Automatic annotation (TrEMBL):
This is Carnitine O-palmitoyltransferase 1, muscle isoform. Its EC number is 2.3.1.21. One of its GO terms (molecular function) is carnitine O-palmitoyltransferase activity. Residues 174-743 form the Choline/carnitine acyltransferase domain. It catalyses: (R)-carnitine + hexadecanoyl-CoA = O-hexadecanoyl-(R)-carnitine + CoA. Belongs to the carnitine/choline acetyltransferase family. The gene is CPT1B. It comes from the Eukaryota.
Length: 761
């Protein structure tokens, strides 16, 4: 028990002989080192805030400006054109300041003003350059002279070793589209889904809204866009995520897959340290255009706190521990020793101590996390009633204030080529587990399986999937190519056997609280059992062959999804594809309505045996071009759905009824899709080390009678698909949809490979 004694800095006893005080030098040493580390972090954040604020300038550049100005005075050259003399006259008289010192101070003030002015001019210039989006709409491989000049200037202005948030203040604001443009694009998007009578009715509703209701709502929205950093993001986070009262599990949270565990936790902590120090480079499109990094701020030390009407996101500046769950027991694992981050071998030791712990769960402890899997109101009520004081409050705070949550899962999951449903079981385990062995409120839960494979379950309110994807790529590359393992399969290094073991969290779960846990568990279990998941690796071809068809890989897959859905259900449906808007400050996502008149025309041509191959190719190219245009419009702030969503919220605030907006927001997304980005960091060669590519991730279906499809283009010859639906719907079958999707991909590729006179069936 030496470690337990060292954890106490001082002890005292009162005896008849007097007051006896005993100090622990070792504990005081740790307290001192922890304090030093905390102050170092504060100073680092202060330094980074300053460096980000003056980017691309540096303190040394300020010194150069000052020295140049002062040197010019000694050479009797007044670069300030009299301003230094004017500043000197305005300085208060003092017997401590000689004429020479007053001149030096005036020159310094003038130089500082010039330096700050240069920074402001740079920022405004960069903001103007970033507002240019013509490059996105130019044909592939054909760049205009103006865009070439723009690219050259951008390369110069953004190439000076930026920190993570260096470009934040220079990013433009998300523009508010005109009502007329949004209404036009909306009507165009629903035309292939409605018959003539339905479309005429929708046109009347849209025109009435545009002429009478929308102008007033638009004025308020434009006013908000002037005042707020982003006119969409705060409302999107609150009303789409935090105000949802249904379970987070399946409905909101998503998952990511990977393999190899050993060093993963340490790699994640290294990422957090780089994030805190802002040493991560901003993600750039084409290597030139920086994207908003604000979502990364809440990746760690963040928990969603339940409320009766709305949840809140609790984010801490720092956290020195992780919470761990194993076989129904919760632990608090400290990440630092003597002010230093625990090494991989130390973490392995601590996890092994948890695995070797023979203790059993306390009454009510095993399924406690089911509260986070059920409806939000019962969880909010239970949290206020049973976790507001005593050991329950202390233990709950240990979980909610942790850097992230770790599950040491007793199951084994991985991909088996000879077992068709191996990835299906893997996906369901990551998405919902047993409904009580994931803390669904944490920003993300790292799940480590018994066989060393791992994955993550992420809460959606704080950020979108590409943010977790960025962390995931870093973790996989660091684990494999930097940290490595010993010959015996252990993490490298020697463990510190003097580390105090992880702290077992203590609970006092009453019978009433157990009833609340069982209620949430029952709701979650029904939801989890209804999820029909199918994942598969498509290896017939990847982006290499698609690009040889001179088509965008995303457009190719989206059109294949339309063809697969038509074969599956015999009709078209409203389709959601997530597109990012991170070219703007605090941007998140916009919807690309992938079911267009052009894509439906192509799909119908594939079902018509009378259509020639040339005609099908022509229709396919039109559909692909239209999809790319819709995607680019969404990325540049000219989407449809976020604008209509915000107009609807303004109408609710003003108490204005709009049949048009009510109809728009009630339309179900029966095909919800999303592409998981790959190679955001480029820490290794994707083609050379293809076995180290993540299988991506997925999410639950949005509509009860629809499909959720996530896909990741893993390289030149691999596309991974994650398909979800509900068993309770007689219209859906994830595996059947997967078969249709495989065939659709092959059929479309066959159009480019078939002989000129052949008409594919």
């Amino acid at each position: 028990m030496a470690e337990a004694h060292q954890a106490v800095a001082f002890q005292f006893t009162v005896t008849p002989e007097g007051f006896d005080l005993r100090l622990s030098r070792e504990a005081l040493k740790h307290i001192y080192l922890s304090g030093i580390a905390a102050w170092k972090k504060r100073l680092t954040r202060l330094k980074n805030t300053f460096l980000t604020g003056v980017y691309p300038a540096t303190p040394s550049s300020w010194l150069v400006v000052v020295m140049t100005t002062v040197g010019s005075l000694y050479c009797q050259v007044d670069l300030s054109m009299g301003l230094i003399s004017h500043i000197r006259q305005c300085l208060p008289s003092s017997r401590y300041l000689s004429f020479q010192n007053r001149t030096l101070l005036s020159a310094t003030l003038f130089s500082t003003g010039v330096w700050i002015s240069g920074i402001l001019i740079f920022r405004q210039t960069l903001k103007l350059l970033l507002s240019y989006q013509g490059w996105m709409f130019e044909p592939h491989g054909k760049m205009s002279r103006g865009t070439k000049v723009w690219a050259a200037v951008m390369k110069v202005m953004t190439g000076h070793k930026p920190m993570l948030y260096s470009f934040q203040s220079a990013l433009p604001k998300l523009p508010v589209p005109s009502v007329q443009a949004t209404i036009h694009r909306y009507l165009e998007s629903v035309r292939p889904l409605l018959d003539d009578a339905q479309f005429s009715k929708m046109e009347v509703l849209a025109q009435d809204f545009q002429n009478y209701t929308a102008p007033r709502l638009q004025k308020y929205l434009v006013l908000k866009s002037w005042w707020a950093t982003n006119y969409v993001s705060d409302w999107w986070e609150e009303y789409i995520y935090l105000r949802g009262r249904g379970p987070l599990m399946v409905n909101s949270n998503y998952y990511a897959m990977a393999a190899r565990a050993g060093n993963s936790v340490h790699a994640i902590l290294l990422y957090r340290r780089r994030l805190d120090r802002e040493e991560i480079s901003p993600v750039k499109l084409l290597g030139l255009v920086p994207m908003c990094s604000s979502q990364m701020e809440r990746m760690f030390n963040t928990t969603r706190i339940p409320g009766k009407e709305t949840d809140i996101l609790q984010h801490l500046v720092d956290s020195k521990h992780v919470a761990v769950y194993h076989r129904g027991r919760f632990y608090k694992l400290w990440l630092y020793y003597s002010g230093r981050l625990l090494g991989p071998r130390d973490l392995e030791l601590q996890f092994q101590r948890i695995l070797d712990d023979p203790s059993v769960p306390q009454p009510g402890e095993e399924k406690l996390a089911a509260l986070t899997a059920g409806d939000r109101v019962p969880w909010a009520e239970a949290r206020a009633r049973f976790f507001g004081s005593g050991k329950n409050k202390v233990s709950l705070e240990a979980i909610e204030r942790a850097a992230f949550f770790v599950v040491l899962d007793e199951e084994e999951h991985c991909f088996h080529r000879d077992q068709e449903d191996s990835l299906d079981c893997y996906a369901k385990s990551l998405l919902h587990g047993r409904c009580y062995d994931r803390w669904f409120d944490k920003s993300f839960t790292l799940i480590v399986y018994k066989n060393g494979k791992l994955g993550a379950n992420a809460e959606h309110a704080w950020a979108d999937a590409p943010i977790i994807g960025h962390l995931w790529e870093f973790m996989l590359a660091t684990d494999t190519f930097q940290l490595g393992y010993s010959e015996g399969g252990h993490c490298c290094g020697e463990p510190n056997l003097g580390l105090a073991p992880p702290q077992r969290l203590q609970w006092d779960i009453s019978e009433e609280c157990r009833m609340a846990i069982d209620g949430s568990y029952g709701v979650a279990q029904v939801l989890a059992d209804d999820v029909d998941f199918h994942c598969f690796l498509f290896t017939d071809f990847g982006k290499g062959r698609i690009k040889r068809c001179r088509t965008s890989p995303d457009a190719f897959i989206q059109i294949a999804l339309q063809l697969a859905h038509f074969h599956d259900k015999g009709r078209f449906c409203l389709t959601y594809e997530a597109s990012m808007t991170r070219l703007f400050r605090e941007g998140r996502t916009e919807t690309v309505r992938s079911c267009t008149s052009e894509s439906t025309a192509f799909v119908r041509s594939m079902a018509d045996p009378a259509q020639s191959r040339c005609e099908r190719l022509r229709l396919f190219k039109l559909a692909a071009e239209k999809h790319q245009l819709m995607y680019r419009l969404a990325m540049t702030g000219a989407g449809i759905d976020r604008h209509l969503f915000c107009l609807y919220l303004v109408s609710r605030y003003l108490g204005v009824e709009s049949p048009f907006l009510a109809q728009v927001l009630s339309e179900p997304w029966r095909l919800s899709t999303s592409q998981t980005p790959q190679q955001q960091i480029r820490m290794f060669d994707l083609e050379k080390f293809s076995d180290y590519v993540s299988a991506g991730g997925g999410f639950g279906p949005v509509a009860d009678d629809g499909y959720g499809v996530s896909y990741m283009i893993g390289g030149e010859n691999l596309i991974t698909f994650h398909i979800s639906s509900k068993f309770s719907s007689p219209e859906t079958d994830s595996r059947r949809f997967g078969r249709h999707l495989r065939q659709a991909l092959l059929d479309i590729a066959g159009l480019f490979d078939a002989p000129p006179n052949k008409v594919p069936n």
